[in-house]
Design brief:
This protein is an alpha/beta fold and about 270 residues long. Helices cover about 40% and strands about 20% of the residues. It binds the ligand O=P(O)(O)OC[C@H]1O[C@H](O[C@H]2O[C@H](CO)[C@@H](O)[C@H](O)[C@H]2O)[C@H](O)[C@@H](O)[C@@H]1O. It catalyses: alpha,alpha-trehalose 6-phosphate + H2O = alpha,alpha-trehalose + phosphate.
Amino acid sequence: MRTDRGAAGMAMIVSEPAGAVIALDFDGTLSPIVADPSAAWIHPAAPAALIRLAEHVARIVVITGRPPSTAIALGDTPDGPDLIDVPGLLILGHYGLERWEGGQLSAPPAPAGLDLVRNELPALIAALGPAADGVKIEDKGRAVAVHTRNCADPDGTLEALREPVALLAGRAELVVEPGRKVLELRGPGMDKGRALREVLAEVSARSVMFIGDDLGDLAAFAAVIEADIPGVRVCSGSAEVAELAESADVVVDGPPGVVALLEALHKSMTSRDQ
Ligand SMILES: O=P(O)(O)OC[C@H]1O[C@H](O[C@H]2O[C@H](CO)[C@@H](O)[C@H](O)[C@H]2O)[C@H](O)[C@@H](O)[C@@H]1O
């Protein structure tokens, strides 16, 4: 643990797990970053680790830029339990705009400006010429993501897209959410920090851990600090996002490191009981 604050948060979670909220991002945290967003399957040991923790804590929450339905689909594992098997699981998708709980989904209407984006984005991308080769549009129903991971120069193409995408988002009354080799156009008014704050209030949380890997998770890190309870900010580390590691209380090595942390947390909780 790098910080005293993180150590105090961890001590509280272990000593009083019934008051703890464990919140996690999906891509890059529970699932590895891969070239094809539709193939980002959850780490096979993650659901079992979450199921064991769920017996002890107030709530397990997945807060993701994905729709909850996609997190559930990608949360299937070949042999073990699946994400959907985690008792009491709450999934806040689209950065908190969609809420899935006990099989029920609640969501506001999709932003009207998305049709403009769907109409104009292909030409905007094509205008980059050969640099656009490999760009992938992911239509998530209430948001559209533009991926450059499969381009010859992913960072260069992302930079070239940044300004035209921002202009299009402005005209469509949407905001741009930057991430790992991706720019997402989505509705305003919600972020992972607000989503996390609402959950903490709902369950009267007495401690919190948030685990993330990307720029969109910085808002949730800020919410951990602002909450007047002990908390731990965990970065699922990668070479792609330095900013998150800089503000984390602890950095682990990608999804395998996240699973190891969840397992160690469960072990600490149960060894206290004996
Ligand atoms: O909030 P998250 O659960 O972390 O979702 C953020 C974005 O994740 C996905 O994109 C990222 O993962 C892909 C699969 O590994 C990878 O190909 C891509 O480069 C990453 O940016 C997802 O496709 C996006 O819609 C999410 O917004």
